Amino acid sequence: MNSSIFKDYDIRGVYGRDFDDRFAFDLGNKVGQHFSADSSPDKNVVIVGKDGRPSSNAIGERVIEGLLKSGAHVVSLGECSTPLFYFVVKKFGASGGIMVTASHNQSEYNGFKIVGRESKLISGGELKELFEFYPLQMLEGGDYEERDFTTEYADAVIKVADFDNADKRLNGDIIYKASPGVGRILRALESKANFNFKEAAATIDQEDSLKIKYDDDGDRLAFENADSSAIFCIVADAVLPKKIVFGMTASRAARKYARSKGFEVIMAKVGHSNIHHMMQGCGADLGIEASGHIYFKSFNFLEAPELALLIVLKQIIDSGRRLEDLAAQYPVFPRAEKTIDSSQIHEKIIQRIGEKFSDGEADFTDGLTVEYPDWWFNVRASNTEPVLRLTVEAETKKLLDDKFSELTAVLG
C-alpha cells in the first residue's frame, strides 16, 4: 500500500499499484470497527455504493467482506451515484458509508469516499489514522442486504425543487451521458415529471435537444448548451441565497454577478470537503466549484446535480426560452486551464510564478491566486493527482491568450 493514496478528502490511487484487494478488505474491516465504536452492536449499519469502473466490483466485494467481518450490517446500493449514496447514509440513519469511486480520474484509478453519520466526510488524514490504529477483527455477526433508493432520492429532489410540471412540457428531448446508476435516477425523474430523457447515441436526432453530461460517479453535471458560469447564475437566481461559497477557481463572472445581486460571496479551497465544511460553518445556501459541483444547504450541504437540473429545467419552462437564450443574459469570461506534470517541487514553481506576477493582488488560500482588474489566475497542486493545475480567466479572448501564453512559458 502506497501511503500517498490518503488524499485531503478521500483515498485514491492506481488499483493494483498503489493499493490492492487486501487493502480494500482491511479498510472495510477497520472502518467498520470505527463506526461500531459510535453505535450499539445491533445498529452499526454501513452503506456501500460503487461507481461503474471495471475494478469497482472486485474492490466493493472486498470492502463488504471486511465490513461483515467487523460485525457490521451492510446495506449495498450496487452501482449508484455519489449524491444518492450521501442521501441514503443520512436518510437511513446509518453509522456511515463507503463509496468505491475515483470520481473523474482515469480508469486505472480507483478509491474510496468515506462518510460518517449524516454523511459527514471523513478526511484522508483521519482515515490514515484509523487505518493504522485498528487491528483486524474477524467476527461472525455481520449481515448483508441489497436495497434500491432511486425512487426515494428522485422524490426528495422533486420535493426540494418544488417542481410541479403537470401542465407544462419541455420542448425536445434531454440527451444525457452518464453512468447506469445516474440513468436510473433520470428515468425515475422522467416517470414523475413531463420529461423525455434519452441516453446519448448516434441514432438520436440531437439537433434541438438539451444535452447534459455527468462524470463517472455522478456528482458533477455539465450542460453542453451553456457555459457553467451561466448555469451557476441561473441556479443562484432561483435559489436566492444569502451566502454562496465559491471554490477558488470559480469564474469571476459568476462571483461578480452574485455580488451584484446582493449575495454574500465567500471563497474556499477547491475540493468537496473544503466547500462542504465552509458551507456548514457559515450557513451558506449554495456552494459552487468550477468543475461543475453544485452544493445545496437543502441537501445537507452536499452535491445534488439532479436538483440543479430541475432548477434549470424549471427556469427554461417558466420563461419559455431556450437554454442558450436564457444563459445569454449572464456574463461569461473567456477561460483557459492547463494541467502541468512537473518533476520540480510544486512550492518552488508557485513561488517563481508569484515573483513574476508580484504586481497583482495575491491570495494564498489555495495555491496562488493573483487578481488584476481585467484578468486573474490560480495555480495550485491537485488534491487527487501529482500535478499542478493552472486556471486563467480574462475579460477578453485576446487578453486571455496573451496571459495564458505568458504563464505557461514561466511554468515551462
From TrEMBL:
Stated family: Belongs to the phosphohexose mutase family.
Alphabetical list of PANTHER family matching this protein: PHOSPHOMANNOMUTASE
Keywords: Isomerase, Magnesium, Metal-binding, Phosphoprotein
Keyword Magnesium included in the entry's annotation: yes
Keyword Phosphoprotein assigned: yes
InterPro entries xref list: A-D-PHexomutase_a/b/a-I (IPR005844), A-D-PHexomutase_a/b/a-I/II/III (IPR016055), A-D-PHexomutase_a/b/a-III (IPR005846), A-D-PHexomutase_C (IPR005843), A-D-PHexomutase_C_sf (IPR036900)
Alpha-D-phosphohexomutase alpha/beta/alpha domain sequence ranges: 5-122, 230-330
The protein's required cofactors: Mg(2+)
Record-level Gene Ontology MF annotations: intramolecular phosphotransferase activity; metal ion binding
GO biological process: carbohydrate metabolic process
Protein name per its UniProtKB record: Phosphomannomutase/phosphoglucomutase
Any matching Pfam family: PGM_PMM_IV
Domain Alpha-D-phosphohexomutase C-terminal: 355-402
